[in-house]
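JOB MANIFEST
job_type = single_chain_structure
chain_count = 1
residues = 104
[input]
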Amino acid sequence: MPVAEVDDFLPPELRVPSHDQVEGWMMPWPWPLVLDGEIVTCTGCGAYRDWIIMATRAQIWLRCRAGHQQQERRLDVAWFNRHSGPAADNTLFTFEDCLRHLGH
């Protein structure tokens, strides 16, 4: 007896993008970021809290509220994953949409 072929893929509205379809992840970090006993400050304006932390291509970037961005080599994607919690339920398709969603 032939077995009926069944489409076992989730419907499109329930699928999560794969890692090769995502440029990176972002999370808000409203507190001061302390690394190696030192508070990280923005190299552009001196801000020390209210960061957006971005993980992209095995690099971590910080963005202050004024829009300055700097790479933070003391952090890695494993740190980001430990501190970001479960994946958000929002998938946004542009950098600007992500920033707006996070209030920046």
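[summary]
The chain has two helices and six strands.
The CA atoms of residues 52 and 90 lie 16 Å apart.
exit_status = 0
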